[in-house]
Specification:
single chain; mainly alpha; elongated
Length: 128
């Protein structure tokens, strides 16, 4: 199951690199990573790292990872749009937004686990 976590982390790094490459190509700024993109990397690690740790008991549930991946993609896409279009983005805003994201992420992960466990129960009940 650790493989899935590492794969997700790798996908996040690739997504970040692609977003930065698009930004660098558009703006002509190469060789220097703007601080707000580094802030996004740190905020993403905190925003998703804690829910993954809190949900350690559910790491074997595939829907947990599927929901997490979907939320991560939405998170990165939303911030990419914001950071590519807003000139001044104070880093403190990442810290302000993160708890509100947890209010969406944690229930969504719980839903995925409950949905997966419910489908397992109903399929095992049909077998008996």
């Amino acid at each position: 199951m650790d493989f899935i976590f590492y794969a997700l982390a790798g996908l996040a790094v690739v997504a970040f690199a692609l977003i930065y490459a698009v930004h660098a190509a558009r703006s002509g700024e190469t060789g220097r990573l703007p601080l707000r993109w580094i802030g996004l990397a740190g905020a993403t690690a905190v925003t998703f790292g804690y829910p993954v740790r809190w949900g350690r008991a559910h790491w074997r549930v595939g829907l947990f990872w599927l929901v997490l991946t979907g939320l991560l993609l939405v998170h990165l896409a939303t911030y990419a749009v914001i950071l590519l279009n807003v000139r001044d983005w104070p880093l403190i805003l990442f810290a302000v937004v993160t708890p509100f994201e947890w209010l969406l992420i944690c229930p969504a992960l719980d839903w995925g686990v409950e949905k997966a466990q419910g489908s397992k129960r109903s399929s095992s009940a049909r077998q008996h």
